[in-house]
């Protein structure tokens, strides 16, 4: 009997709750056992009841009160996972002032919920309504215990180990940005749908992704991510947008959606290039844009190349002068220039002259691209007779500016006599390789 | 100063090629000529021909100006029909014919000897 | 590049034919490749002299057409350059267009049709005394300045002592060595072998082969005549005459068909495309080349009012496959009547 008592006491003390063991005759004085749960009370009562039936002699002994201080609720039960992790991972204010917790080796939060599903635990149960449907056809599923999963613990450990390992995503070469695994130059998918419109055919690329700091009075250094992206459907529609957030991905998302709100139509010549050469300046960034033929490709600053890809321009040459690092200035200047293009028809109407294209591919056949709509063609060609300006289409929109041409760097030995002799010999043998090819091919 | 129309050996190792040039006799063989009048390729081409190019117009001019012809040039011009055939061509041809005949005779005697050996 | 070569040849041929030099022997007064289809030309004149006649040239020029867009179509080029744009007044535009027309006309200059050349052995000197002077023949080329290719003397001294004029093939090779024509190969490309020509014809590359043949061969070369005639026959069999319109080869093709009395297919094509004037011109060409034929005599006798009458005369007297042509004429007339009635409505 004493053993049963002790057993009863032992059972109850294992639970982390404050309990008092009380002798049977104290059953009525519930106030002393006020913290005992109904279930526990039930147990105590049961034990008491069974015991009372067995020995009345022992009930005359003085009651033994064993108090074990156990806690019902702890810090671990009161507070959520986020705050718990803060205690482990975070750095104190004083520490932050000294710049602690910013380096590579800082601890990271492990999400312990990963690998666990609600309703399953060490005991593998099927709870209808929780992890199985209640009705299977017309049949009601009963609560069922499945055989335990022996690998569950090992699996959880494995998942948590992998999470703590630092892995850098390896982008395949065609999806990489301008350098490494950094965001600038990378595609981040189409903008989020707005209502019914799904932005089909649109893509965004990040142009700039920075972590900026603001010193506040209260919190000290406040960091946030800024993302500057360009959105386009590769067929004449494009726009740029800036987004800021505490979280990098959120910043990109905000920027993307903002850019989608600011789409502009970019007129293109034959869907592959601009209409004419142009010059633009925004702040300290000047850009000279040149119209190029099919097959030329995008020969320009990487920012401009990316923007052109999004717009659907395939052949262009652009030279950025002045500030080449200011991504926003380059973008804004470039967009500004492209929106204010003059189509061939507009030019013909304005000037009152025929716009004629001659191409080496067609042996300089003159093709009239645009004529004045009213049919009235001007007689004299000179614009300003005093200055005797000629209609040079290549420099028409430069506004008098001239692109800087870097002088070709000659090799350091270009003045040596031996080099001059070598050049003469090379000239003498200029077609030898070509003749050899013909001979080898049996065509000579 | 005497002028000569002669062959200047150009080309490279194991591949001779002659320029027919007019130049002063004291100058080096391959030095800059007054004028190039043609070429002569001593190696037969894939059609088994030896090619000679001659600018007869200018050749006539330089011969009229007193340029001497060297033996090889004289031979070439004789073969081309522009000038009478050079005497050395006759002599070389005769010698070649005799040598060829002698070789042929030797071959025949050798073959008859071997056949007679076989027989015996 | 084909244009300069062709023009050089053209003028050289003209000079030769008027000066009577380097003519073939009297017996071989027909095109080398024999009589295709077993049909002999009615009047065996030298085709070269017929081709040169101004009336014939006029007809061939008219019949060729002049589509500037086709003449100056976009051709792939290695060095890419951006197009140039000009702002022009009406007068400047007309000037520049006139220049383009002139350049187009140059591109349409026809390679001449000539009798096939034959190798005649011409021995200049026989010297058996120098037999054996060398094992290889010597080929002497005259590289004097400013001599036309055809009058340049090229002689060969054989190892047996004979001095002879070079054969035509030898001449071509020597001229290519010392005076190379850009685009022409020293050895004849395999493309011109019969099987390879057939393969290209199956692919439909008529203009390409004709252009290359024009550059590679002289117009009186047997290979050139063989290749061009084979291409014309193939075009006739598949009725793809339009591919050569507005190119320099159409005139030669029209002349070939007229010379060998095979103009029916071409007439059908012309009528179907509403080129009735061209069809009448072709019949006129036929009459010039075969002045003794029945319809030619009839034309002299009768008063021919319009083009259709001329064509009908030809069909009545001289045509062998006239059914198709009549059908085409019928369709043409019907469609004209219909359009007229539509316009009236």
UniProtKB/TrEMBL annotation, chain A:
Signal peptide: none annotated. One of its GO terms (molecular function) is structural constituent of ribosome. Keywords: Mitochondrion, Ribonucleoprotein, Ribosomal protein. Pfam families: Ribosomal_S5, Ribosomal_S5_C, Ribosomal_uS5m_N. GO terms for biological process: translation. Its main location: mitochondrion. It comes from the Eukaryota. GO terms for cellular component: mitochondrial inner membrane; mitochondrial small ribosomal subunit. It is found in: Mitochondrion. Residues 202-266 form the S5 DRBM domain. InterPro entries: Ribosomal_Su5_D2-typ_SF, Ribosomal_uS5, Ribosomal_uS5_C, Ribosomal_uS5_N, Ribosomal_uS5m_N, Ribsml_uS5_D2-typ_fold_subgr. PANTHER family: MITOCHONDRIAL RIBOSOMAL PROTEIN S5. Belongs to the universal ribosomal protein uS5 family. This is Small ribosomal subunit protein uS5m. It comes from Ridgeia piscesae (Tubeworm).
From TrEMBL, chain B:
One of its GO terms (cellular component) is mitochondrial small ribosomal subunit. InterPro entries: Ribosomal_bS16, Ribosomal_bS16_dom_sf. GO terms for molecular function: structural constituent of ribosome. It is found in: Mitochondrion. Pfam families: Ribosomal_S16. NCBIfam families: S16 (TIGR00002). Residues 101-120 are annotated as: Disordered. This is Small ribosomal subunit protein bS16m. The keyword Repeat does not apply. Its main location: mitochondrion. The keyword Ribonucleoprotein applies. It comes from Ridgeia piscesae. Belongs to the bacterial ribosomal protein bS16 family. Gene3D superfamilies: 3.30.1320.10. Keywords: Mitochondrion, Ribonucleoprotein, Ribosomal protein. GO terms for biological process: mitochondrial translation.
From TrEMBL, chain C:
GO terms for molecular function: structural constituent of ribosome. It comes from the Eukaryota. InterPro entries: Ribosomal_mS22 (IPR019374). Pfam families: MRP-S22. GO terms for cellular component: mitochondrial small ribosomal subunit. Signal peptide: none annotated. PANTHER family: MITOCHONDRIAL 28S RIBOSOMAL PROTEIN S22, SMALL RIBOSOMAL SUBUNIT PROTEIN MS22. This is 28S ribosomal protein S22, mitochondrial.
